[in-house]
Design brief:
Strand content: 5-15%
Number of strands: 4
Strand order of the largest sheet: 1-2
Oligomer: single chain
Number of helices: 7
Helix content: 40-55%
Structural class: mainly alpha
Shape: elongated
Number of domains: 2
Radius of gyration: 30 Å
Order of helices and strands: EHHEHHEEHHH
Largest sheet: 2 strands, parallel
Length: about 170
Amino acid sequence: MMAIQMRPSFVKTALQSMHATKICPFRSSTPRGWDSAGIPDKQLSSLTIMVMYTISELLKRGWTATMITEYAPEPDINKVNPVFKNAATMKLYAPDQIHTIEQSIAFLNALEKAKERKLAASKAVQTKKKRLIDIIDSVQIHIEEDANLLNHAISDYYSYRAQTADGICT
């Protein structure tokens, strides 16, 4: 049996990419012995798609890093990262286990507390932004008129170039 492990959001994309790679680019129709999704008929009956959650998907579902270590410390599968071989292994979690954990009262309480902390943190960021804007608005910049400003700038430029050419400044 052939098993493919994918994130839920990429199941359709994966089938489309399999379709794109299996169909002959010189034909406009599907080759003989292939179904419309581009999967060989022989493999179609044995194809099983295992949908697994990654840590980033758990975070998108509202989990925090602490909640992952507390409620799902051991992943169901550790898989080599397909993009970067030297990167850390991908931790994959079975959806039925995740859904069971998400239904528990302890997890729901922790999720509610995490939402409250995120809301408080976003309010703190808004307050900091407002204070910074107030400080910026209160600063007054005065530029004094200098009739010889251009001449001073040119003079400083040439003296700097003369010093660097002589090796004085490096």
